Amino acid sequence: MTQQYPIGTPGKPWGDEEKQAWFEQQSKQRDYKDNVIRRIDHLREQFDVETYGELNYDGRSFPLYVVRSQNWRVDRPTVLVTGGVHGYETSGVHGALYFLETEAVNHLARFNILVAPCVSPWGYETINRWNPAAVDPNRSFVTDSPAQEAALLMQYLEVHEIAPSVHVDLHETTDTDNSEFRPALAARNGTTNDNWNIPDGFYLVADSSREEPEFQRAIIETIKPVTHIAPPDESGCLIGAPMVQEGVIEYDAKELGLCMGMTNARFVTTTEVYPDSANTNPVECVDAQVAAVRGALEHAAGKC
């Protein structure tokens, strides 16, 4: 199925005029300060909270936060949890926060914990995949990144010499991937859009260069009591990629500039929750994100 996007000329990549037209169509739909920063502030008694940068878009300032465990020890393995790299993926943001509020304390004896709950706050507020320059932060974790969202987080890890052993990046796959974001991507790039089948259920994206199949399997098993696992389509695929085991596909994370590829962590995965399923609800989606991190840490404990 193809779908023509209302901005631009089919077959012609966007220039500055089209990108500005797209930006002018975006509007604030929820509040980063009330929904995210307020919850981060409530964590200050149990965790250290640091700002690692600030985004300034359209006259507005968005401070960027990491929440990290107190009593940080260099001889202890570090887990990195990232949420809201795609700001519109709600349970990624709220799952990261809920992990800190509920589950993180259970792992402080074994890990240093570092969480960036909302990497793309402008995208969170406007419910967008891109930043205001029509750049996808989750294709921008590369040298000389075109997205401040990615560059600032990578810089923080480098300056503080943080090398995680575990990295869990929290995402969603939504119906708007087909109705909005993939058509917009094709229009921006001057290509033809072919929508993919949206998987009904939870799945993981592993890094093809660091497969760790037992790690991925442990997360899937932890998820099963919480929410349903996405079945493959008639071609044995999820979003066009072959399913390598139940609920798991693979991408080349570093080659694609994905967030999960920005470190050399041995245990790395990207979660994908489907919030538009008739078989789930917002609370279950958040619970699934927390369960995924728990499953990751329980498997990695003692192995890194």
TrEMBL record:
Its cofactor is Zn(2+). One of its GO terms (biological process) is proteolysis. GO terms for molecular function: hydrolase activity, acting on ester bonds; metallocarboxypeptidase activity; zinc ion binding. InterPro entries: AstE_AspA_cat, Peptidase_M14. Transmembrane segments: none annotated. Keywords: Hydrolase, Metal-binding, Zinc. Residues 28-304 form the Peptidase M14 domain. It comes from the Bacteria. Belongs to the peptidase M14 family. This is M14 family metallocarboxypeptidase.
